[in-house]
Amino acid sequence: MRFVIVTGMSGAGKSTALKMLEDMGYFCVDNLPVPLMPKFAEMLMLPDAEISQAALGVDIRNGQALDGIEEQLSHMDAQGIRYEILFLDARDNVLVKRYKETRRQHPLGGIGRVDIGIAKERERIAFLKMQATYILDTSKMLTRELKQALEKIFVEGKEFKNLYISVMSFGFKYGIPQDADLVFDVRFLPNPYYIEGLKEKTGNDREVQEYVMDNDRAQAFVEKLMGLMDFLLPNYILEGKNQLVIGIGCTGGKHRSVTLANVMYQYMQKKEHYGVRIEHRDIEKDAIVKAH
């Protein structure tokens, strides 16, 4: 029997995650009164129970009863009931934007004060994040990327280390990404912009990739960069970090940065216990600027 408690910040994707888990064969219940949690789990554990995997949604809508969830979890621990906690999170500015887009009021925010509601909620459910088995930061996740992460954990049973990595290429002339945790400048590499036949192509094209990477500097940089990542990522996890944005920049964000971002993304994909996505922020901007 696999029993998953799905919780987290309002607006971070809990309802979407529950629907996805249901599609994956989980029996899902949302917003069950907290005092009934142990009884629900006990029913699932009965020898003749036909349900082999279940997910229970718990969030701030449970009101004051949410404060008693620690006691209920302790009760389940004492009963030998095994459970996992999936905590969905997102940055405050992302949550505010999502609320404004849907024109919903935060359950703790009163009239119009979404930011205050988010702050109150974050404080009230901090203990759940501390006990979480898995933490997914959905700030930059597309719906399909959330589904892939859930499948990795709850269908394929792969190890997951609570770190979701966004690899982003960008152009320095358009500004450094404000949310980048690490920034690497690859403007020292050969620039395809000045090569006939390559200028209009991008780092997604094989010809550009070969031009950028076919030299000792590029190969040495990749080796050192990947070694640095192998050292940093486990230590970020120990520190409690669950979202990492790596920016790789060149002048225009079209050739060199895209090439190196793709190399890093492919390398990270082989690390099956991390979630990873790629974004080429400025790859089309040169064309847009010229069109105007």
From TrEMBL:
Binding, GTP: 59-62
SUPFAM superfamilies attached to this UniProt entry: P-loop containing nucleoside triphosphate hydrolases (SSF52540)
Domain RapZ C-terminal: 164-284
One Pfam family it belongs to: RapZ-like_N
Binding sites annotated in the UniProt record for ATP: 8-15
Keywords: ATP-binding, GTP-binding, Nucleotide-binding
Highest taxon of the lineage: Bacteria
PANTHER family reported for this sequence: RNASE ADAPTER PROTEIN RAPZ (PTHR30448)
Name this protein carries in UniProt: RNase adapter RapZ
Species this protein is from: Schaedlerella arabinosiphila
Gene: rapZ
